């Protein structure tokens, strides 16, 4: 296939960016999207030009590093597929493909298609952990977990922290990511000691990082390569509300203590 790329080029967050067009000739449908960018970059390097900067690590859909907006959709046209798992057979000969970085105030551009996603790290640092007793491993089945909770916790734990949910949201909200992280721990017995604190602190960290509010558009779920459900946002809202009530001084609670 011979393709035409329109790629966002931006030296850093302080300098305005712009789209630059490149030809991508001789692309095989069996290449991944990132391999196609590798080929284009080899051509740019040979010509003495600056290669297109993009983030990647595992190239197996598990690290969450490879986020970019392809033809207006975070991670490109295929549902439940990260950019690194997207194959060029999803495109046709002669296509023009527009490639941009995540656009969100909380994710400033580092260079070209690379954004700084450390705001997610700060949300995790605020509460994405459990207090565990150190020492020898506990006996198997010493702590029983209901199957339904185990399954839901696994679904939430599938979040790879890519940020597509933020990029897809018209408010650049990080609610789906935060909800997945709060829920996967809050559903398990080991996550109970910090459950209230976790919901309050992770939401506070999300707000401090200037992510927008959730207004129930659902674009996050549609863009998520791991199909994290917006139902986890409802779960986070419940946890946050309950934690807020429990943390109120006793004098301000209702007669029933709630
Ligand atoms: S919820 Fe989905 S889109 Fe958002 S960071 Fe996690 S895996 Fe990526
Ligand atoms: S490079 Fe790791 S998920 Fe794409």
List descriptors:
single chain, 258 residues, alpha+beta, 11% strand, binds iron/sulfur cluster
Layout of strands and helices, then pairs:
Blueprint lengths: L2 E7 L8 E7 L8 H14 L22 E2 L2 E2 L21 E5 L8 E3 L2 E2 L2 H10 L19 H11 L6 H5 L6 H12 L8 H14 L10 H5 L7 H17 L11
Parallel strand pairs: 1-5
Antiparallel strand pairs: 1-2, 3-4, 3-5, 6-7
The chain binds iron/sulfur cluster and FE2/S2 (inorganic) cluster.
The site of FE2/S2 (inorganic) cluster has 13 residues, from loops.
Describe what this molecule looks like in 3D.
It is a single chain. The chain has 258 residues and is α+β, with helices and mostly antiparallel strands. It is 34% helix and 11% strand. It has eight helices and seven strands. The strands form two sheets. It has a five-stranded mixed β-sheet. A two-stranded antiparallel sheet has the order 6-7. A hairpin with a 2-residue loop joins strand 6 and strand 7.
The strand line-up of the biggest sheet is: 2-1-5-3-4
Mean pLDDT: 95
Largest sheet: 5 strands, mixed
Query: How many alpha or pi helices?
Result: 8
Report the count of strand segments. 7
Q: Which small molecules are bound?
A: iron/sulfur cluster, FE2/S2 (inorganic) cluster
Q: Rg from C-alpha positions?
A: 21 Å
Please state the structural category: alpha+beta
Note the beta-strand portion. 5-15%
**Which H/E pattern describes the elements?**
EEHEEEEEHHHHHHH
Percent of residues in helical segments?
Answer: 25-40%
Uncertain spans, ≥5 residues at pLDDT below 50?
Answer: none
- Cα end-to-end separation: 64 Å
Shape: elongated
């Amino acid at each position: 296939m011979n393709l035409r790329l329109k790629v966002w080029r931006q030296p850093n967050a302080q300098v305005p960016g712009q789209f630059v067009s490149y030809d991508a000739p001789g692309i095989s449908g069996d290449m991944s999207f990132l391999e196609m960018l590798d080929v284009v970059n080899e051509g740019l390097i040979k010509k003495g030009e600056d290669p297109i900067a993009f983030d990647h690590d595992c190239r197996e859909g598990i690290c969450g590093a490879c986020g970019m907006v392809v033809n207006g959709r975070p991670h490109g046209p295929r549902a439940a597929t990260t950019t690194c798992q997207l194959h060029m057979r999803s495109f046709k000969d002669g296509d023009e493909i527009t490639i941009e970085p995540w656009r969100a105030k909380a994710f400033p551009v580092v260079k070209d298609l690379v954004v700084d996603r450390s705001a997610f790290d700060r949300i995790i640092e605020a509460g994405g952990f459990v207090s565990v007793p150190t020492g020898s491993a506990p006996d198997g089945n010493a702590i029983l977990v209901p199957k339904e909770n185990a399954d839901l916790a696994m679904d939430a734990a599938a979040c790879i922290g890519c940020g597509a949910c933020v990029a897809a949201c018209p408010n650049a909200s990080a609610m789906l990511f935060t909800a997945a992280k709060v829920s996967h721990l809050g559903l398990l017995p080991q996550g109970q000691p910090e459950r209230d604190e976790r919901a309050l602190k992770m939401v506070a960290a999300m707000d401090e990082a200037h992510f927008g509010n959730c207004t129930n558009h659902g674009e996050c779920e549609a863009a998520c390569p791991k199909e994290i459900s917006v139902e986890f946002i409802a779960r986070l809202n419940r946890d946050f509300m309950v934690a807020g009530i429990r943390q109120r001084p006793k004098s301000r609670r209702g007669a029933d203590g709630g």
